[in-house]
Amino acid sequence: MAERLVGKPAPDFTMETVTGDGQEFGHVKLSDYRGKWLVFFFYPLDFTFVCPTEITALSEAFAQFKELDTEILGVSVDSVHSHKAWINTPTDSNGLGQLNFPLASDITKQVARDYGVLIEEEGVALRGLFIIDPDGELKYQVVNHNDVGRSVEETLRVLQALQSGGLCAMNWKPGDKNL
């Protein structure tokens, strides 16, 4: 039976990363985001077809997330070397180009397992997206089949709803009153 994550402390992680410019390797842990909101998303694999549409759309919207004191971290089960190659591959050759946030490597698959998105028999993650608050509490999760990309607009809407501090009705939008 699946364990509930929303409303609990986000599962801790430490992973290797590559910067969004594809130049430097590093490490990231959940505690690095303490005091900020985090949009933490999993995608199946580098050099695929739906994934770059999501990753580049989130990168293009990065300034909107920054205005909301929110960081973004993408992760797959690929190595940081694969991430670096994908970032450094031109977009017209199925590459990502430069990003405004890092990509992390969950090569052991433990983080995907901890967040409940690992497809064990395939060894890849589902499209899981999590919003973690500044205190490390997991506030939102959405998990899609790998055939369907996620919505940047909906992610921003939910983030703003969570940050509004009140009860938000169906189809709440920024500027709407809380219940």
TrEMBL record:
Membrane-traversing stretches: none
E.C. numbers: 1.11.1.-
Enzyme category, top tier: oxidoreductase
Signal peptide (residue range): none
Keywords linked to the UniProt accession: Antioxidant, Disulfide bond, Oxidoreductase, Peroxidase, Redox-active center
Domain Thioredoxin as annotated: residue spans: 4-164
GO function terms (MF aspect): peroxidase activity
One Pfam family cited in the UniProt record for this chain: AhpC-TSA
Family (UniProt): Belongs to the peroxiredoxin family. AhpC/Prx1 subfamily.
Name under which the protein is recorded: Peroxiredoxin
Species this chain originates from: Paenibacillus enshidis
